[in-house]
What does this fold into?
Amino acid sequence: MNPVTVRDFEKIKGLSELRAAPDGRHAVFCVTQADIQDNCYKSHLELLDVETGETRPLTAADGRGYVFADDGKSVLFPALRDPADKKAVESGEELTVFYRLPLAGGEAREAFRIEAQVKKLESLGGGKWLVSHLCDLTRPDLTGLKPGKRAQVLARWKKESEEFHVVDELPFWFDGRGFVNKKRTCLSVFSEQTGALVPLTTPAMDVGAYVLAPDKKSVVFAGNDVKGWRISDEGLYSVSLPGGETETLVPLGGQSFDRLVFWQDRLVIAGSVGGEKMDMNSSKLYTYNVQSHRMELAFDPDEDLGASVTCEASMGGEPMRTVGGDILLVTGSEYRGRLSAWKPGETALRRISPETLCVLSFEQVGSRLLAVGFTGSGLQEVYDVTGGQARALTSVNQGTFDGVPVPEPLSFVNSGGVRIDGWVLKPADYQKGKKYPGILSIHGGPRGAYCETFSHEMQVLAARGYFVFFCNPRGSATRGNAFADVAARWGTIDYDDLMAFTDEVLRAYPDIDKERLGVTGGSYGGYMTNWVIGHTDRFAAAVTCRSITYLTGFSGVSDLGCWTDLHEQGGLPWKGEQQLRDRSPLFALDKVKTPTLILHSFEDHRCTSPEAYGLYQALIAHGVETRMVLFYGESHGLSRTGQPRHRVRRLEELAGWFDSHLKS
It folds into this structure.
C-alpha cells in the first residue's frame, strides 16, 4: 500500500439510500464519490441481488433522491440533463425533473416535471405523489405571466435577493443553506396526470419531520406556523389526503419532534415534548395513540439516536423506522452505532446487530435485514445482519486502503474513576526506537465520538510520520447521557480528560517525542484546541478548524447560538455573561505561545467567521506565530462535504503547518 495522500479521499465511496426493491429480492443504494478534477461529487445507483450478493450499476450518473415507480419495475430519480432545464433553474425557475429507469436496464427517459424544488417524493398510488419541497415566501407570484414578462420579474427578484436581505425571523440563516428568512419546507400533492401541485400546508408553515399514514389517507407532520421565532418549538398536526382539513394533535409548547414513525395503531415519536430540557443530540421516545389522541413518554433510551461516531463519506443515516410492521428498529450511538429493536411498552433497546458493526442505515429485503455500516477500520459496505451476524454483501470499498496503520485501543481510568476510551495511530513508517512527533485530535460536538474507524485526515498525518492519538473525553456520545453531559462545563472536565489521555499516550508510546506535540480539532474540537493553547504550552503547534472563541458573541451570530448557549452553557449574555466569559477561550489568549493555524469558512453559519477573526487578531497582538486561511463558498462542513479542491487545500495547509513546526 502506498502512503495515503491528501487527494486520496476521492477514492472513498459513500453509501446511502438503501431501499428494498418491490420484487423482494433486490435492493438499490446510492454511491457518492468526490471528483477533485471536476470539483464536485458524483453519484450513481447500484442494484444489489441480496441472494447472490451481485451488484451492477443502474445509472452512470445521478440517482440521489430516487424512489421506486408505482409499476414496481423502475426507479424515478431527479436530474437536470437537458441544458434548457439547467438554464431555467439558473435563471430562478423552480423545477425538478424526474427520469424513469427500468430496473432491468435500459435508457432513462423523462417521466414528469414538478415546478418546485423537490426534497422528497413518496407514492400515494395512481400517479399521485406526496411531495416535500422548498417554498420561498419572497418569491413573486408568476401566475398567468407570459414567458418574457415572467423572465423579467424573476430577474428583478433575483437581483434584489443578491443585493440585500430583509430579516424578520429567527433563525434567519442556517449553516449549509444560507439565509432562510421567509423560506419554508412545504407539503403538497402532485398529480402526474394533470401536472398540478396542490398544497397541503399553509405557506407560513415550516414542516419538519413527517410521516405518511399506512393507509395513505393522511399525513402527520411536525411544524411551526412561523411568527418570528421558529427554533425548537413545533406542533404536531395531521392533514387528510388528497387535500383536506388540518387537525392540531399537539399544539406548540416548547417541544421538538425529530422523527415520526407509525407502528400498528399508534405513532412513535423521537423528540422532546412538553417544555422539557432538550439536549442538543438526544431524544426520548414517545407514543401517540391516534384513537384516543393521548401522548405518553415511552422511555429515555440513554443514548443518542443515530450513529454519533465519525465516519468517512457518511451520507446520512436512518435513526428509526418500522420493518415488517412488527418491530421498530432504532440506530443508536451506544459504543459505536448499534441497531436495536424496540416495541412500545418495553423499557430497553434490544441489540440485534453484532458489536463489530457500526450501523448507519438499514432495510428489510424479503426475509433479510440489511444494513449500511462498517467494521473496524474499514469503509462502508452493505451487510446482511439477519440473525445478528454481519456478512458483507458488497465490496464497493474493499481493498481501497489495505495495509494502512490501524488504530490501537488505549483506555484508562481518570482521577475521578471514570474510564476514558482512546486510540493511537502509529506512523506508516513506524520503526521501534525511532522518535516521532505526535498529534492530539479532538472530535466535534461535544456530543460526537471517535472509534477505530478509518479517518483519511489521520491517515494522511500517519503517512507523513506522525503518531495520531484521539479519545472520547467526558461530553462525548456512546456512553450514555450522564457521561455526555458537560453543560456549562466546557473546558473543565473534558480538558482534564484530554490532558490525562495525552499523558497516558506518552507513557504507553515512548517513541513519541513529547517536545514535538501538535493539537487539532474542528467545531467543538476547534473550541477545545483554542482552550488548550490558552491553558498549556505543552504543544508545539496547533491547527484550529471552524472553531469558537467567544461564547458571548456566539449567542448572537451562530444559527444555533442562543439555543446552544442556553442548553450547553447554562445561560445567555444578558443573564449569564460571567458564565459565558469564563468558558470562552478568548480570555486566555494572552497566555498562548503555541504557533497556530486557523482554518475557517466564510459561509460557516454555525461557528461564524468572526470567531476566527477574533482569534487571529488576539494571537497576532500577543506576538504568536499565526496564519489564517479562509475559504469562500464553504459552510461548517468543509472538511466532510466541501468542494473537493478546497478539501485538498485545507489538508495541505493542516499537514504543512505541522510539518513546518514539528519536524524541523
Notes: DSSP finds twelve helices and 38 strands in the chain. Confidence is low (pLDDT under 50) at residues 276-280. The first strand starts at residue 13 and ends at 20.
